[in-house]
From TrEMBL:
One of its GO terms (cellular component) is chloroplast. Belongs to the FBPase class 1 family. It comes from Sesamum indicum. Pathway: Carbohydrate biosynthesis; Calvin cycle. This is Sedoheptulose-1,7-bisphosphatase, chloroplastic. Its main location: plastid. The keyword Transcription does not apply.
Amino acid sequence: MESTGIACCARGAILPNLTSQQYHPTALASPRAGSTSFISPKSLKASSLFGESLRIAPRSSYKSSKAPKSSSLVTKCEIGDSLEEFLTKSTTDKGLISLMISMGEALRTIAFKVRTASCGGTACVNSFGDEQLAVDLLANKLLFEALQYSHVCKYACSEEVPELQDMGGPADGGFSVAFDPLDGSSIVDTNFTVGTIFGVWPGDKLTGVTGADQVAAAMGIFGPRTTYVLALKDIPGTHEFLLLDEGKWQHVKDTTSIGEGKMFSPGNLRATTDNPEYAKLIDYYVREKYTLRYTGGMVPDVNQIIVKEKGIFTNVASPSAKAKLRLLFEVAPLGFLIEKAGGFSSDGERSVLDKVIKNLDERTQVAYGSKNEIIRFEETLYGSSRLKVAQPVGAAA
Ligand SMILES: O=C(COP(=O)(O)O)[C@@H](O)[C@H](O)[C@H](O)[C@H](O)COP(=O)(O)O
């Protein structure tokens, strides 16, 4: 990243990077790139929730300097756009815009409910109207409500309610949505990052379709920062939106390629006890001194590949440790996000986007990562890879 004096995500600079000399509790560095001057506390605006907050840099200071992309639609999108601006520039489908905005509203509320949940015993709970609900059930309700409110969703179903629910929207020109309301709900108490996953299919079918048929997919990520990471069929890239203090989603990063880099996230590691090929793959990562980055939450573990633009996530099955991840609610939407970001996915033999979803509860093993990582994954597990390369990359040797 260029040295601008601003610590932030790519080109979406909003947070000043203070040195200890510059830091003073009542003064903050100017958000202007390259500036070390101070702005007075008077110029900070009050946050709606938590008192004083950082002022947002003027729009002109966070315009993208990136080279134009191939799609004529995406060339008009700029880092710093609001979610609404971005969607309007990215697609002419007003129904899809409405759906993605409605889901963004739900994600914002879920983020707040997760952040303020009480955890104890077996669950983390928060209020929903007059009820106290476990946060995953609460997220589930909020998402169904958002889909009904969008007026463009025909059917929805969730990991919590794995049956088609009629949302009242049209089948023709409308969408069907599958979602995991709060992936990682069992690690909310530990304060690890958790998230919502959803995939959007055109029309009224969520079975007999493939992940490649999705028109959009997204994750809401509830960690130190709250982000909405989405991809649309019509435009390249996977796009990250940051939830600002004032409640708006702002476009802060896009990912269009996943390169090589030694970072691994090994799920279902217990399968290495009776899957020698998976054990061989894990040995390779350790021998080659890969960095372990694993939380046990699929959303942050996959999101880091998109944000860091490198790495490999694996969740491999064995006779005694069966595949647990759901193709419809988790694996296909995340596969869409990874592949739109320039990465690859695999169930061992093919892209997870090419798997026909035969039933709502179908499970699969999966890997997401860079091209060479997926080649290594397929070669090590099954002896060959459909992704041809000139040089062998494998742990299989
Ligand atoms: O399904 C998940 C979390 O379940 P829950 O907390 O009930 O919402 C996923 O996040 C995966 O379980 C996770 O990514 C991971 O692959 C699990 O593998 P392991 O760490 O070996 O249990």
